[in-house]
Amino acid sequence: MSTVPASIPSGSPSPTDDDAGWWRNAVIYEVYPRSFADGDGDGVGDLAGLLARLPYLASLGVDGIWITPFQPSPQVDQGYDVSDYCDVDPVFGTLEEFDAVLDAAHALGLRVFMDLAANHCSDQHPLFRAAVDAGPGSPERTMFHFEDGPDADTPPNNWIGSFGGSMWTRVAPDSATDTQWYLHIFASAQPDWNWRNPAVGAFFEDVLRFWFDRGVDGLRVDVAHGLFKAEGLPDIEDPAAVVKGLRFNPHVTDQEELHGVYREWRRIAESYAPPRILVGEVNLEPPRAARFTRPDELHQTFAYGFVKLGWDADAWLAAGIALERSHREHGATPAWSLENHDVLRSVMRFGGGKLGALRARAGLLAILGLPGGAYLYQGQELALPEVPVPMEARVDPMWTRGGVCRDGARIPLPWTAGSADAHGFSTRADAEPWLPVPAWWGEWAIDVQDADDTSPLSLVRTALTLRKHLLEEGVLSADDDGAWRIDEGAVLVCEREKFVVVLAMGTDAVPLPDGEVVLTSSPLTPEGLLPPDTAAWVRRS
């Protein structure tokens, strides 16, 4: 039943590291390939563009990259609706081009993670098409959730999808003989796999081996807290929770059977040399999310507590304490992040304009100093603002179904100040980018910031260089617990034995703790105080 091709011989070797736990401190850069760099001039970013720009990523000082889905897909949800897990969509290139990216990244010392959407696939996936064609009661339909409703017009239960609307769609709405519905917690073009069928687990184990054999260093597991649905698919009893959607539906996430899957995946990952890494998108409360990082399960889960926060010291304190404490309980460390392709850019969340940009710099410097790893979203190193996308140009299915648009954080990167070729995004001067690029986008361009030693880009490069030195010296250890507090004046502090992160979130300049000021996100005042909306790294004597 599997459509996964046989494993190929091992690809290019990963960068080696004497520290088997390198990922505990790693900084990974998220590449959203559609918007990173267009190498063939069609207005859509691709693997050829990524290959050409890899030296830029290496120059930042990150440890690796995570590439969001590039596998074959109808692109209903920008690649998260996969129709073939073991190939490359022609929009992005070929398997040979992916191999070239892998080889070049490894030569530059960059590890490569890729996305795995294991909760759902595309409605064009061969196994789903076979299930539709096979009809009710067939073994093919047991690979997914096909169910009968009370009648032909009523879905099997009252679940509401993450993108809005029912989680159920009729397979053949005009058929009098096939009245079944199929489950999709996202768009109707993304049917959920039935993980209670062992054949689904076997299918994905083959997928893991295919990419690990090719030389991929790790996987970021999409909706890692999903996969299994509650036995019997019962209604949500709380009417208020019904309309709140996915996160408030206890029947579609955080099922106990998940942990057995990740234990098996961890065994597979550790059968390779060097071991491959598993990172989960686990959008749960910290104590529940941290359970996925027990020593024999996923290596990391994203620290989701920060990606939707505003500029509020109390909220940062609560999230920081909860995330670190819950991960430490299982011997893990958080993987901090402020942005990703699904949320508003931090510049907007922190107030917008110059103030938001100032705070975004400070917030990023702060999380790079916290105990554990960190994930940067492309353009975050430039302090890119959120871009308002005209309604007629929006392509996000979340907008069409639920009224929320994520396109503003996915605008193609500005590489050059000039407006031709979409500010350097494309190889053709007349290329029309897949999302509209504003005329003022060149103000934030990489070539502009590259020439400015006070720019957000320069700050990030400096911070990542210093971070490596401090880690080598044992000053910035992921294994040291952070002592979190708020000092007078809304000053957030995370203090360790040899290192202190200070984030001034109030309205006044504040004194710094004793020690050597290693780096600040903005200059200190003439009196040596830390200005508001500024972060500092302080090394203890």
Summarize the structure in words:
The N and C termini lie far apart (62 Å). Strand 13 (491-495) and strand 14 form a beta hairpin. The chain is of the alpha/beta class and 541 residues long. The strands form 3 sheets. The protein has an 8-stranded parallel barrel with strand order 1-2-3-7-8-9-10-11, surrounded by 4 helices. A 5-stranded antiparallel β-sheet has the order 12-13-14-16-15. A 3-stranded antiparallel β-sheet has the order 4-6-5, with no helix packed on it. It has a domain at 477-539: Immunoglobulin-like (Sandwich), CATH 2.60.40. 26% of the residues lie in helices and 14% in strands. The protein is built from 14 helices and 16 strands. The radius of gyration is 23 Å and the shape is globular. The protein has helices spanning 47-60, 95-107, 126-134, 198-214, 239-242, 258-269, 286-290, 313-328, 346-349, 353-368, 397-402, 421-424, 446-450, 456-472, and strands spanning 27-31, 64-67, 111-117, 146-148, 168-170, 180-183, 218-222, 277-280, 300-303, 335-337, 373-377, 483-487, 491-495, 499-504, 516-520, 534-539. Mean pLDDT is 92; it is low at 1-11. The longest helix has 17 residues, at 198-214.
